[in-house]
Structures are given as C-alpha cells and as structure tokens.
Amino acid sequence: MQTLRDIKEYITYKAVPDCVSIINKKLPNFKLAVLKFDDASDRRSHRGGMYSKGPGINLATSLLKHWMDKQGIARFYEYPAFDEDTVIGGAYIAEGKIAIDIITAHEIAHAAQHYVYKLLNTRCKPHGPLWRDIYTTVRTEFVNGQLGDQAKLKQIYEKRLKEIKQELLARVGKE
Ligand SMILES: [Zn+2]
C-alpha cells in the first residue's frame, strides 16, 4: 500500500468487510451504510457513529497517509484511559498497515455501538462498556494477531529513540 488510492481500496474492500463480518457474529444485521474519506489536510480526527443513512465511519485521509509513510517501528496510542490495556490499548507497530487496521476497527466499533443504541433505545459513554465489548472482539479477531512480540518491538523502538536523541545532542554540541 503506497498511494492514497491503495489505502482507500484496502479499507473499502478488505478492512471494512472483515470488521463487519466479525461484528455480524454478535449483531447479524449490522451493516456499514456510510464509508467516507475526508481529504482535508487539516482534519485531525476520525469519526464513527450514526448518519442519516445509517451506521458509518468517516476517516481522515491525512492521518491514514501519515501512518503508511512511517518508517520503522512506531508507537500507536489509543485513548489514555485504555492505552495500557493489552487487548484494546495502544501498541508498537512494525508497519503502518496495522495502524490503518486499528483505526478502522476503532471507528467501526463506534458505528456498531450507535447501531445498538438505536436497536435497544439506550445510550452509554463513547468509550464505555458497549463500545469496549465490540472493540475487544474486533481487535482480537482482526488486529491483534498481527502485533507480534510487543516486548521485543518496544525494546527496538526505545533503542532507536535513544540513538536519535544522542544524534540530536551530538549535533547541538557541534554548533
Ligand atoms: Zn473512539
């Protein structure tokens, strides 16, 4: 996946259908009615929720591209309240594609949550128990098998961070 077009095609024809079929095991009639990509360069967040046509997600293209362009190991952060969680938390990722999968899973879980809200005429918090339950399933079945040895990735990531810091300090010292 190199170009924006590749990323959008991957999400549309692979990531979304995979996530939806995992959710369908618990919610058989759930469908994603809206899949939008926002190409505005200043868009800084994704959205998953209910649209007039039904449950949907809207992904910020610039952020997707940001992850695809990353070189080496990166740390993907989830919301602070659950970033440390070993199932639904942030992760060290060896390739940008995994970040795309996490983002898609996270937002589809919001879309499914709003679908359940409507179905049961209820509501809870945006990252509350209902969302966490759906997200846990999608993370486990769609994303987490790709994460690899997190302790090892963390070690490599921190070593590289230290090297970058030393390189910067060395440069500052020379000027
Ligand atoms: Zn969220």
Number of strands: 5
| Silhouette | elongated
Taken together, the total number of domains comes to: 1
Bound ions, cofactors and other small molecules, one mention each: zinc ion
Low-pLDDT regions: none
Assembly type of the chains comes to single chain
Distance from first to last alpha carbon: 40 Å
Explain what the structure shows.
The protein is of the alpha+beta class. It has helices spanning 4-24, 61-68, 96-120, 129-143, 150-174, and strands spanning 34-38, 47-51, 54-60, 74-76, 91-93.
What's the helix and strand layout?
Elements lengths: L3 H21 L9 E5 L8 E5 L2 E7 H8 L5 E3 L14 E3 L2 H25 L8 H15 L6 H25 L1
Parallel strand pairs: 1-3
Antiparallel strand pairs: 2-3, 4-5
Bound molecules: zinc ion (ZN).
Which properties best describe this structure?
alpha+beta; 175 residues; binds zinc ion; three-stranded mixed sheet; 5 helices; 54% helix; single chain; two-stranded antiparallel sheet; elongated
Compact summary:
The chain is an alpha+beta fold. Helices cover 54% and strands 13% of the residues.
